[in-house]
Write a structure and sequence with these properties.
Chain lengths: ~500, ~500
């Protein structure tokens, strides 16, 4: 049941008087439950509780943390249709997506359970003593990874489950041994509370200390700011806009004790399509990309917002075909009114720049929060001349940049900001000529895809989901897969230690 | 030969008119060569050159980078007595230390050569495709680590070789595939130029691109600020004071594109000595610690500046003995007049705080830059009540904090800022009672030493040299050993890539 209250550890709490409602974007109406924004007292209570139990939780064995994570997965599944309904109501996303994303969330939790049930992930290293080494004896040194402390997770608007309350950031931080305080996304407060209740149930069932998890509601920046500035918070995870992520990064960097902020932010995900590929399979590529651009109403951080090609005989035909196929896909609902507003405004901004032409967009009246997919085009020269053309338009939008030659296309890539992904669509006989292109993309992105689409982020060890700024605030880490646990830990060395005082895995 | 000029890549350059001299601290006189501070033009030239060759250098094979690093080691050794003389003249440190530190520097270079000659360090990961997976096929994903770009290294005053021009930061960054620009320490400019000449010779001999390394001189903050703010610089390494490191961190965080700063800064390195250990072997511990406190004139980041003990029957005797033995060690020269000034001022500040008593210090007139070793003591209550008592006194100083009981001692630890190291001196029969102490130290430090001294940082895979802020700006990384290469790289994934376009190590 959705109460509208915060979880301060295992306790429901609503001390404040400021409330907000979530919105059903399909109907464009508020949902009935008022959600109570956490007060500063409640923020402090949650952080103090997390700090207090950190000492205990960080010593909980990997096996028991795995039980906890698996129990969270079980409890999420047990929420059943109530969760799916809250998700679809608050996000406007379809039931199939809700079920799929729940599957991903559960898979992530179970993957981290598997990871921490064993000790391999800690990079445990033992350098034995060499007492007779000359000129000085070598001491015994043993190194492992230990958790940083309480972690604050900001839930994403575009993944109400997989990158929110019990999403990748929470799962990896809990797996690492860090208590977690989630700042719920204000537009998914009901979904957030349900998932939080699952985490709390799982914590109680598996005997985790009260305070290992809290869930705080809030609409503006007050709760988030108080959390990031709290001296007992030791790291932050965030998925969202560049403005939001940068604001948190700045707060965290200016603290007396700066703390890391892992913000996964904006990306327009350049896709290079060679003119030969267009000549050979224009229709197939247009169809695939129309699907990728509109997938999830274009509300993925890996959405292909920029298509780069060298002008060739079939470019115009391809652009027209892409626009036609994109527009032919039925308009879908966006996550909430602000996302719709941003989509319209940013789309209008990009398409009003010199040289940018709209090739196709859905015409006519749409329901309030539905998005009119939009394909535009611009020359390489106009794109290079004007940074406003590379602004992210979050939603079903892509800008096709038609470069005069390969050199101009490389210049476009070299001038892009950091990106999560880059994609190359090319024919086999061209592979030998693509080294410069791969080189250029390597310098700008965190993942390069060949003859595919950037949407769809596999959860596996070889995945990197992150990239140079502003794709991420720290390109050395990623937000998906086993490696993402490394964000919440630091190395420690034990020198000449008695076995009984070493962490168990180092007692060899 | 020392020319006083900057190296902009392979070229000696002295476009500016601002010069400075280094100081022979033993004689307290300036050395003869004027060193030309790099102009902003020269800074830009060095960074542009580094950025230009990054594209080439990052593709140089590990085997060839290993040749380069080994050649640097060879060329440093070939400098022979000229280098040792410059080192001892500019640092006031004895010849034995110079030779030892040169050995460490050469060892570090050769260790990184060994590391990158193989590919293991890149964490190469291959997740093969599963084309028939349901509901969606799994794409082939391959992950490796690639270099960030040009790195700026600020040389340390207290390690003119091992943490300076060709020290650990430079060696690890060059090993990773990043061009390096060193900002030489103004007080070791001659040593810096000699080592820079060795790097340049090695680069030329092994065919590395011109610009892979530059060495810039400068006294104030102008050169360093221009380097850190330059958009083509992608990471910074620093060893030095909290004020200096934090200033660089702030500059780097406030850039349009923030970049990581790995600053290894202040630490007072708490040493807990149980009263039983004092009862059993007071004289031995006092002797060992008198040596550790005065080693290198106390100018190590791991110097034991804080000794914590629970008051016992022999505490007073131990403190007196420690002071006596410390003061009995002949006064030594400090690195330069500013270090001496800081030692005197900070020592006076700490010893003037309420409840702090000087137990022993070298009496009488000393030559200008020689340090009068100093042992002081304070009660746990007075220490806890006043943050000024925990100020770092860089030099041969230690403050013994006498706690009334175990609880107060733990409170002292819990209230300390982050530290590089913590040490426990205890008797075997006490081990079972030390879990809380180890716990408390784990939360505050990067390395815990048992029945030893914190000075002496072994270069090996299990070493962690770094700690929670302000010991380091990023506790997740360290400045010593193989893992320190991870500071300069980021992960990248290749999805469904043709073999011929993959980095060689991923073509399996």
């Amino acid at each position: 049941m959705i109460t509208g209250k915060n979880y301060i550890g295992n306790k429901l709490s609503a001390k404040g008087s400021v409330t907000h409602h979530t919105i059903n974007p399909k109907l464009n109406i508020e949902t009935p439950t008022p959600f109570f924004e956490a007060t500063i007292d409640e923020v402090n209570e949650a952080v103090d509780l997390a700090w207090g139990v950190f000492k205990e939780y960080r010593k909980v064995s990997g096996t028991r943390r795995a039980e906890f994570l698996n129990a969270i997965a079980d409890e999420i599944l047990a929420l059943d249709q109530e969760l799916i309904d809250a998700y679809t109501t608050e996000s406007g996303l379809p039931e199939g997506r809700a079920i799929g994303e729940r599957g991903r969330t559960v898979f992530q939790l179970r993957s981290f359970a598997d990871l921490v049930a064993k000790e391999d992930w800690r990079e445990n290293t033992i350098d034995e003593a060499i007492p007779d080494r000359q000129p000085l004896p070598k001491e015994d040194l043993r190194r492992t990874l230990i958790p940083l402390g309480p972690v604050v997770v900001f839930a994403a608007s575009n993944f109400p489950l997989a990158f929110s309350t019990a999403g990748g950031d929470t799962a990896s931080a809990l797996a690492a041994g860090c208590p977690v305080i989630v700042k719920a996304h204000a537009m998914h407060s009901g979904t957030a509370e349900l998932v939080a209740s699952a985490i709390i149930k799982a914590a109680e069932k598996t005997g985790m200390p009260n305070g290992v998890f809290s869930n705080l509601m809030g609409r503006g920046r007050t709760v988030g700011t108080a959390l990031v500035e709290h001296p007992k918070v030791k790291a932050v995870g965030f998925t969202g806009s560049i403005a939001g992520g940068r604001a948190l990064f700045d707060l965290a960097s200016q603290r007396e004790e700066p703390i890391p902020v892992f913000a996964e932010m904006g990306s327009i995900n350049p896709v290079v399509i060679t003119s030969k590929a267009i000549s050979n399979r224009s229709a197939e590529i247009a169809k695939t990309y129309a699907g990728s651009i509109t997938l999830g109403t274009g509300q993925f951080c890996t959405n292909p917002g920029l298509i780069l090609t060298v002008e060739g005989p079939k470019t115009q035909e391809f652009v027209n075909d892409l626009a036609e196929k994109t527009v032919a896909i039925e308009a879908q609902c966006m996550l909430h009114p602000n996302i719709k507003k941003g989509f319209v405004e940013n789309g209008a901004s990009v398409t009003s720049q010199a040289g940018v032409e709209v090739v196709g967009t859905i015409q006519g009246e749409l329901d309030a929060n539905y998005a009119a997919s939009l394909i535009a085009t611009v020359s390489g020269a106009d794109f290079l001349a004007n940074p406003k053309t590379s602004q992210e338009v979050f939603g079903p939008f892509s800008l096709v940049v038609r470069c005069k030659d390969e050199a101009e296309l490389l210049e476009v890539i070299n001038n892009l900001e950091g990106q999560l992904t880059g994609t190359i669509i090319a024919e086999e006989e061209e592979y030998g000529n693509l080294h410069d292109l791969v080189d250029a993309l390597e310098n700008r992105v965190g993942r390069i895809i060949f003859n595919g689409v950037p949407t769809g982020v596999e959860v596996c060890p070889a995945m990197q989901h992150g990239g140079p700024y502003p794709a991420s605030t720290d390109s050395r880490f990623g937000a998906v897969g086993a490696n993402s646990i490394k964000r919440w830990v630091r190395p420690i060395s034990y020198q000449s230690f008695p076995k009984e005082l070493l962490p168990e895995a180092l007692r060899k």
